[in-house]
Amino acid sequence: MKKNLMFLFLLISFQIHSQVINNIYSVPANPSTSDFVYMLVDCQFTSSGCSAHTQGYSFITANSIGAWALHCLGPLATICNYSDTFPLGILPMGNYTFSFQLDEGHGGPPCTPGIAPGPSDSYPFTVSLPTSAEEIEKVEFNIYPNPASDKLKINPDASGSELKIEAVKIYNMIGEEFFSQKLMANGQQQVVIDISKLSPGMYVAELKAGEKSSRKMFSVQR
């Protein structure tokens, strides 16, 4: 019995220490609201074949993004390094936290995770205005529901109740425009967008009101 417990302890210890998050960083290093942002995670494993993997996003809130990766390791005991890349898209100005969970497993993708969870880490970063646009005013707005499924509603917040929305655009996370609508000159207080044809995932809504503009991130789930 003691031998079995010792073997289990050693196996769990090996699982915990056989995968490492070496570094998390953003590209570009100091992103602005005009940049397409990528998050890179440098990982290391003690077995071969770590390039075979699955990855995704676990959650998204206004200023927090969670992601994960499950790497399928081969039978050879060789050091394997790999960088996981996560496109975050064009983000609104603000402070963010990117959280990451790393796991390893065996077999073909999607492989079976090991018996012990791998390491996790987080990376705080700031998105600022471009130097040439520091004086551009923002229009604050609410976007709901988030996550959304069929309809997305956009409203200026209470402090900007006099603002009239003039244009709305929606981009996916690689900067492709999926929706664009110019509104009447007199504007309107609420915009309702049909997003039923959008695939599940993360998107950015851009709103303009006069000289003011702003972006917010949202997700589509079904």
Explained architecture:
- This protein has 222 residues and is mainly β.
- It folds into two domains: 114 residues; 84 residues, Sandwich (Immunoglobulin-like).
- Helices cover 7% and strands 51% of the residues.
- The strands form four sheets. Strands 3, 4, 6, 7 and 8 form a five-stranded mixed beta sheet that branches.
- Strand 3 and strand 4 form a beta hairpin.
- The radius of gyration is 22 Å and the shape is elongated.
Class computed from helices, strands and strand pairing: mainly beta
- Count helical runs: 1
Query: What's the main sheet like?
Result: 5 strands, mixed
The whole-number mean of residue pLDDT values reads 80
Q: What fraction strand?
A: over 45%
Determine the N-to-C terminus distance: 48 Å
**Which term fits the overall shape?**
elongated
Number of domains: 2
Question: What is the total tally of β strands?
Answer: 15
Order of helices and strands: HEEEEEEEEEEEEEEE
Report the radius of gyration as a whole number of Å.
22 Å
| Helix content estimate | under 10%
Catalogue the unreliable spans: 2-17
Descriptive key words:
4-stranded antiparallel β-sheet; mainly beta; Immunoglobulin-like; 222 residues
Short description:
7% of the residues lie in helices and 51% in strands. With 222 residues, the protein is mainly beta.
Ordered list of secondary-structure elements with their pairings:
Blueprint: H1 2-17, E1 19-27, E2 37-45, E3 53-60, E4 64-73, E5 80-89, E6 94-106, E7 112-113, E8 120-127, E9 141-144, E10 151-156, E11 167-172, E12 177-182, E13 191-194, E14 201-209, E15 212-220
Parallel strand pairs: 4-6
Antiparallel strand pairs: 1-2, 2-5, 3-4, 6-7, 6-8, 9-10, 10-13, 11-12, 11-14, 14-15
